[in-house]
Structures are given as C-alpha cells and as structure tokens.
TrEMBL record:
This is Pvc16 family protein. It holds the Pfam family CarboxypepD_reg. Residues 5-178 form the Pvc16 N-terminal domain. It comes from Saccharopolyspora rosea. SUPFAM superfamilies: Starch-binding domain-like.
Length: 272
C-alpha cells in the first residue's frame, strides 16, 4: 500500500502540468542520510511518519448491494502518511543552493494545488480496488526537534516540507451478508394501554402459529395466532424472560425489557 502511494506521488510530480523543475527532476524515496548523494537533481520524499488520522475515523460500516442482499464491511482505517520533501542538486556552492531552492519553490505551490490527490494519479492498490474516500493532502508546519532528526542522519539541517497524504486501509477482512428487506410491518401500541406483545417467527422471519409463549416465573401463558402474534396485557413494566415452546423443537428463551417505549418484543427461533 505504501509503495503504491510512492508511485502515486511520483506520477503527480511527473504530470505534464507540473512545473518543469519537477518534471525534470528525479524522484526518490530513500532516507536522506549522509550516504544519500544523488548524481542528478532530485526531489526526495522520505516517508518518516505513519499514524491513524483519528479526526477522519468513521466507525459506520460500509454497505454494498450484492445478490439481492447487502454486504456489510468495516470502514477503512484512515492512515496519515507524512513525507519529508527535500531537494538535492549535484552542483556545488551557490549553484547547488540556487537549484535546490528553485526546485523547492516549484514543489510547494504544486503540493498546495492538490488538497486532494486526483484519481488520475492513483497507482496500484490505491487505484484498484478504488479508494472509498478521497485522499486529502496538505503541507504541514515543520515539526519541533527536527535538528535532532538531521543529527541522527549525520548531515547538516536542510530546508524541507512535511507533506501528509491520508489513505484508506482495510484493517482486516470481515464481511457480513444480510438479505434485503422484503417487507416492513408496523406493530402498533398504545401509550395509555400498554401491552407486552410480539410475534414468534422462524429463522426466515415467517410467523409460527400455535407457539406457546410463557412469562417465566409467572403463570401467564399465551398461544400465538396465525400471524405468530402473542400479547400479555396488565403486566407491570420491568425485565422478563419469554419462553417459547413449539412442537418438535427445543424451548427457546428470550430476555426482554418491557416499558412504555419498548412494548413489542419479537422472538426469532433458530434454524433447525
């Protein structure tokens, strides 16, 4: 994934609309340490930080329509990839400084011109499958403590541009498939005459008539009608356990919390 982002940025810097200083320069992703000594004018994009962009986190699952149903999968994790962009010239003295500054001067507005990475630049796994979200990009302020960074690399500090692109990455492969909704049935209740009610349904959500429903711990029982409906009037609000018995099937129990705004409690029997 990160190598695909490298290839994407290389394509963006080599675009026909990019400044000539960028099109003519090599693009490297090597560590800019004391052993880095390019023989041609080079833009080096060193990936020095990878972190989750929590400000863009979305915990809502993605929904895709497939085979008459729906496929739910986790939203991609938003990963912020920060590059340190530097310019390198094989010249010496003032010639080198002038060329490096010209390249950086061309790079900065070109990066600012792309607050979102254009789809035409995307490469590899960033292109196929397509990214769920656009790829935001921004030039960031220089971090504190960069002097120690250059010291660790064994070279003198250089002018640099921190540049961050946020990509979407699947954390793991987990998909759940559900059938499409075929019908919607509203169950009416009355606030001034509450009733603990519901329906007994099989695993395909078809009604189960004649099921015997009981309130565990009481002597209250009800038999489901042809639509699978049952009801218990004159029951105090509170927590209950419904016991459902159907011929030739094991007993099924369901815990319910009965209240003014939670009067209907359906019981779905497991597949046999």
């Amino acid at each position: 994934m990160f190598q695909d982002l490298d290839a994407t940025l290389r394509a963006m810097l080599g675009d026909a609309a990019a400044p000539g200083e960028l099109r003519d320069a090599d693009v490297s992703f090597d560590v800019p340490d004391k052993d880095f000594n390019p023989t041609r004018t080079t833009v080096d994009l060193f990936l020095f930080e990878i972190r989750e962009n929590r400000a863009l986190r979305d915990d809502a699952p993605l929904r895709d329509r497939v085979d008459g149903g729906y496929l739910l999968r986790p939203a991609p994790v938003r990963i912020a990839c920060t590059y340190l962009a530097t310019a390198w010239s094989p010249g010496a003295g003032a010639v080198r400084t002038d060329e490096e500054h010209r390249v950086l001067g061309a790079l900065l507005p070109w990066l600012h011109a792309h607050p979102r990475i254009d789809d035409r630049f995307l490469r590899g796994g960033l292109q196929d499958p397509p990214q769920v979200y656009p790829l935001p990009a921004e030039v960031e302020p220089m971090r504190e403590g960069m002097g120690q960074f250059w010291t660790a690399l064994g070279i003198a500090p250089r002018p640099a541009l921190p540049f961050t692109v946020t990509i979407g990455m699947r954390a793991f492969e987990q998909e759940d498939q559900f059938p499409a909704v075929q019908a919607i049935q509203a169950e009416g209740v009355l606030a001034d005459r509450p009733v603990l009610a519901g329906r007994v349904l099989n695993s395909e959500l078809a009604p189960v008539p004649a099921a015997l429903v009981a309130l565990v711990g009481t002597d209250r029982e009800a038999t489901a009608d042809r639509a699978g409906r049952f009801s218990f009037p004159d029951v105090d609000f509170g927590a209950y356990v419904l016991s459902v018995r159907v011929a030739d099937r094991p007993e099924v129990r369901a815990s319910v919390s009965y209240g003014p705004d939670s009067q209907v409690h359906n019981v779905v029997l497991p597949a046999q």
